[in-house]
């Protein structure tokens, strides 16, 4: 690829290391790219409140081509965090339907709201205890314990269990109303059907008048697949799921080894 205008980056397992930091060499290379006029888009399941904290580490607010894809494609923001586009989010009815899936397959379920999150302990896995540092978190026994008003701004739903049960659940799920994407071995994120990082990247490219062929995207989870397919070049991290590697155009080093930085330096 010769003319790159945009670099789309997943966060966890891709741009961020295990400590949720951007490695210095990776940051230096990405800053160099932005100085050349190449935009950087952070694409995540996080909302803008959490995602902009990482954007600040890359000084995204200084580069007009850069921006954010939030909530797995539900919202798109420019470099100064102005909302560019917003899809219809999941609602209370959706929450109850997905809660039924959690009960059927014995999965813990997490509901992300504007200012808090609720973990409904269906399976009592306690696998979420190391997650969500700095966020107000409530653990309840059933979805009825969540205040009704919270569902006015439901941001995201996640399902949690052991890797083996997650694998078995995905094999058995036959639900055409939602997209169930494995983003970690023990973690599924639930999105409205046909709304994903790939559709958001297409829209971002339209807004910025960028050809998809001039976009390179990096990811590691199954919620990154559409984004890697849409981009002119989709690169899977070495730590990606096999399903992600299979659709990728190329594979780079893992997120702990400055995979993004080495790839960009070598091929651009």
Percentage beta strand:
25-35%
Physical arrangement of strands within the biggest beta sheet: 5-4-3-2-1-12-13-14
> Compute the gyration radius: what is it?
18 Å
Spans where pLDDT lies below 50 across 5 or more residues: none
**Element-level helix/strand string:** EHEHEEEHEEEEHEEHEHEHEH
Envelope shape: globular
Residue share in helix: 25-40%
Ends: how far apart?
Answer: 7 Å
Oligomer: single chain
How many helices does DSSP assign? 8
Q: What would you call the structural class?
A: alpha/beta
Please, could you describe this protein's structure?
The chain is α/β, with parallel strands linked by helices and 268 residues long. The chain has helices spanning 24-35, 48-57, 92-105, 163-172, 197-207, 225-230, 242-247, 259-267, and strands at 6-10, 39-43, 67-70, 75-78, 83-86, 108-113, 117-120, 137-140, 154-160, 178-184, 187-192, 215-219, 233-237, 250-252. It has an eight-stranded mixed beta sheet with strand order 5-4-3-2-1-12-13-14, sandwiched between helices. The longest helix is centred in the middle third of the chain and has 14 residues, at 92-105. The termini are close together. The model has no long low-confidence stretch (mean pLDDT 93).
Structure at a glance:
This protein is of the alpha/beta class and 268 residues long.
Give the helix/strand layout:
Blueprint: E1 6-10, H1 24-35, E2 39-43, H2 48-57, E3 67-70, E4 75-78, E5 83-86, H3 92-105, E6 108-113, E7 117-120, E8 137-140, E9 154-160, H4 163-172, E10 178-184, E11 187-192, H5 197-207, E12 215-219, H6 225-230, E13 233-237, H7 242-247, E14 250-252, H8 259-267
Parallel strand pairs: 1-2, 1-12, 2-3, 7-8, 12-13, 13-14
Antiparallel strand pairs: 3-4, 4-5, 6-7, 6-9, 9-11, 10-11
Helix pairs in contact: 1-8
């Amino acid at each position: 690829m010769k003319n790159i205008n945009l670099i789309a980056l997943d966060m966890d397992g891709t741009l961020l290391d295990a400590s949720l930091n951007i490695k210095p060499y990776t940051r230096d290379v990405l800053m160099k790219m932005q100085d050349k006029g190449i935009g950087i888009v952070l694409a995540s399941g996080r909302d803008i409140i959490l995602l902009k904290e990482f954007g600040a580490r890359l000084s995204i607010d200084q580069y007009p081509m850069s921006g954010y894809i939030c909530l797995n494609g539900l919202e798109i923001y420019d470099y100064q965090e102005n909302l560019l586009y917003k899809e219809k989010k999941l609602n209370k009815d959706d929450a109850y339907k997905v809660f039924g899936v959690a009960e059927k397959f014995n999965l813990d379920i997490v509901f992300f709201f504007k200012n808090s999150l609720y973990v409904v302990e269906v399976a009592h896995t306690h696998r979420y205890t190391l997650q969500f540092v700095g966020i107000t978190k409530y653990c309840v026994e059933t979805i009825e314990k969540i205040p009704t008003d919270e569902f006015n701004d439901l941001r995201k739903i996640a399902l949690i269990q052991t890797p083996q049960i997650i694998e078995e659940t995905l094999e058995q799920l036959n639900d055409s109303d939602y997209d169930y994407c494995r983003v970690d071995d023990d973690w599924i994120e639930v999105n409205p059907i046909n709304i994903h990082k790939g559709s958001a990247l297409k829209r971002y490219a339209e807004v910025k008048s960028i050809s998809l062929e001039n976009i390179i995207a990096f990811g590691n989870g199954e919620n990154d697949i559409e984004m890697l397919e849409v981009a002119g070049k989709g690169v899977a991290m070495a730590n990606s799921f096999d399903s992600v590697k299979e659709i990728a155009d190329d594979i780079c080093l893992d997120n702990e080894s400055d995979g993004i930085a080495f790839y960009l330096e070598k091929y651009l």
